[in-house]
Amino acid sequence: MNKIVHFLNKKYQRFFEIRKIFELRHFIHRKFKEKDLGSLGLDFSDKPIRQDIVQKIIDKKKFKNYLEIGCNKDELFSKIICENKIGVDPIRGGNLRITSDKFFQNNNNKFDCIFIDGLHKYHQVRKDIINSLKVLNENGIILLHDCLPNDVFAQAVPRCQHVWNGDVWKALVEFRTHENLDVYTCYADHGIGVIFNRKNKNLLKIGTTDFHKLKFEEYFNNYKSLMNVISFEELLKVVDL
Ligand SMILES: C[S@@+](CC[C@H](N)C(=O)[O-])C[C@H]1O[C@@H](n2cnc3c(N)ncnc32)[C@H](O)[C@@H]1O
Fold it and tell me: Whose CA is nearest to atom 26 of ligand 1?
């Protein structure tokens, strides 16, 4: 009984510590960082969830090898049906307890479908994409979670609230400028980034090479063209191009 009380007490304290840290960071963001422009009003409630999107693509393309980076409670990983599944997470979930960097250092496998959902910070996502491209089978697909933040706080780094997409969107914008990668964002489940290793069909021209420094205001005003936003129905068509 004592052990349970001690455990709950620790959990309770940790919850309030995190809340205080988030409140402080929120304050710093509001006062010293990018302006609060309000919400884009993106509503994913009537759109397909990531599990349905990933499974539909795996089934449609008869994919056999699935890799998930960042698995957490296995909400996705445990539900995906595929012949070979590898799930990488240093904390919990999946079947390999390591970081994505360590995994890619030692990996010799190739994959048809890679779902990137690990650390939601630009530099790490960029690295995860580059490493994934090296082990992607021909005609394979890379998917990324959390590409469409609704407001400036949802994408702020460091994280300052519970609902958090991070600045994954900046990495996606960067790969939109590559001639030999075809990149989209599906309007579903917080924005599902999509990367094919083939000629870009809608190359983004943008006057920067330092994508980390992109401002949220630019995303807020131009997210549809920056991210190449498509519907789930359109995604199913571009998968077959
Ligand atoms: C948003 S959760 C993943 C959710 C899961 N993919 C799903 O769909 O339910 C992010 C996970 O990424 C993991 N993570 C953080 N840094 C990582 C890294 N460098 N490599 C791999 N996973 C990482 C965290 O431990 C956390 O469990």
Answer: 72
Is 0.85 topped by the overall pTM? yes
Q: Report long-range pairs for 121-125 (Cβ below 8 Å, ≥24 apart).
A: 121/157, 121/166, 121/167, 122/157, 122/166, 122/167, 122/168, 122/170, 122/171, 122/211, 122/212, 123/212, 124/100, 125/166, 125/168, 125/171
Are the beta carbons of 110 and 135 closer than 8 angstroms?
Answer: yes
Helix boundaries (H) for the chain = 2-32, 50-61, 100-106, 122-134, 168-176, 216-227, 232-238
Residues in the chain predicted with pLDDT less than 50, given as ranges, are none
Closest ligand 1 atom to 74 CA: 9
Give residue 1's pLDDT. Answer: 67
Does residue 100's CB lie within 6 angstroms of at least one atom of ligand 1? Answer: yes
Please work out whether the CB of residue 118 comes within 6 Å of at least one atom of ligand 1: yes
pLDDT for 17: 79
Q: What is the pLDDT of residue 13?
A: 74
Number of C-beta neighbours around residue 171 at 10 A: 27
- Quote the tokens at residue 91: 């904390």
